[in-house]
Amino acid sequence: MNNINRFIGVNFANPTILTFLLDNKEIGKLVIRDNKLEFMGDAHISAQIFLNNFMKPVVDNYIKEKLELLN
Question: pLDDT (tens digit, 9 = 90+) per residue, 6-61?
Fold first, then answer.
């Protein structure tokens, strides 16, 4: 998760909640519009970025911690 800012930008001051980036280009974003959460952009690539670059390190760390407790 050291370089997560290269892939996912978060700005709560702006109605855009998450911006998904690939090679410094915006691929997709989650926005709040009319009090609803809306996604705009390439959902498939954005999901890959989110899962591979954000969720996978979180899950891997969780599994590592649990395995260390067993040993």
Answer: 555 555 565 667 889 889 899 999 888 787 889 999 999 999 998 998 899 999 99
Q: What is the C-alpha to C-alpha distance for residues 33 and 25, in angstroms, rounded to an integer?
A: 22
> What is the CB neighbour count within 10 angstroms for residue 41?
14
* Domain limits for position 23: 4-70
Sign of CA dihedral 50, 53, 56, 59: negative
Looking at the DSSP bridge assignments, the partners of residue 16 are: 31
For the chain, how many structural domains are there in total?
A: 1
The predicted model scores a pTM of 0.63
Residue from 26, 17, 32 nearest 49 by CA: 26
Q: How far apart are CA 27 and CA 59, in angstroms?
A: 24
The H or E element spanning position 8 is strand 8-10
